[in-house]
Specification:
By secondary structure, the protein is α+β, with helices and mostly antiparallel strands. It has 4 helices and 5 strands, in the order H-E-E-H-E-H-E-E-H. It has a 5-stranded mixed beta sheet with strand order 2-1-3-4-5.
Length: 147
């Protein structure tokens, strides 16, 4: 498979577009994510809240679940943006994935997977999954049933 270059600005633009679709009537906190596959496709995800809260889903996991549900299992990077819907875009803070989202990333990605947290297309940071989730518990840590 040919390597796909990571364009942080394109992923950030896609994440902001995904944020516009967020369903956050309870918290007002809108999150958008753009997930880059190894073959160059981008899957968008937004957070989706529920009145019962626990069935709510983060934007990052929405993007992963969309991709995985279509058979994609190799990923290079994700851009994540978030903030209260009333916060002007020029006043957003960096938004990092929650622990549950980091755990889902560990299921499908290597430690070198890039996580781009952004305030804008020009104001962003890039971290690896290993940096944001050191000593991760992943698929290699689960003993498989043996015959």
């Amino acid at each position: 498979m040919e390597a796909t270059a990571i364009d942080p600005r394109q992923l950030i633009r896609e994440a902001f577009a995904a944020r516009e679709m967020a369903y956050a009537p309870y918290s007002g906190y809108c999150v958008g994510a753009a997930l880059l596959t190894a073959d160059g496709r981008i899957y968008r995800g937004c957070n989706i809240e529920s009145a019962a809260f626990s069935p709510s889903n983060c934007g990052e996991r929405t993007a992963f679940f969309k991709a995985v549900s279509e058979g994609v299992r190799e990923f290079k990077a994700i851009a994540v943006v978030g903030g209260h819907r009333d916060t002007p875009l020029d006043q957003l803070a960096y938004f990092a994935p929650c622990g549950v989202c980091r755990q889902v990333m560990t299921e499908f990605c290597k430690g070198s997977f890039q996580i781009i947290v952004a305030k804008s297309e020009i104001d962003y940071e890039i971290h690896t999954l290993s940096e944001l989730l050191p000593l991760a518990f992943g698929p290699a840590d689960v003993p498989l049933a043996r015959d």
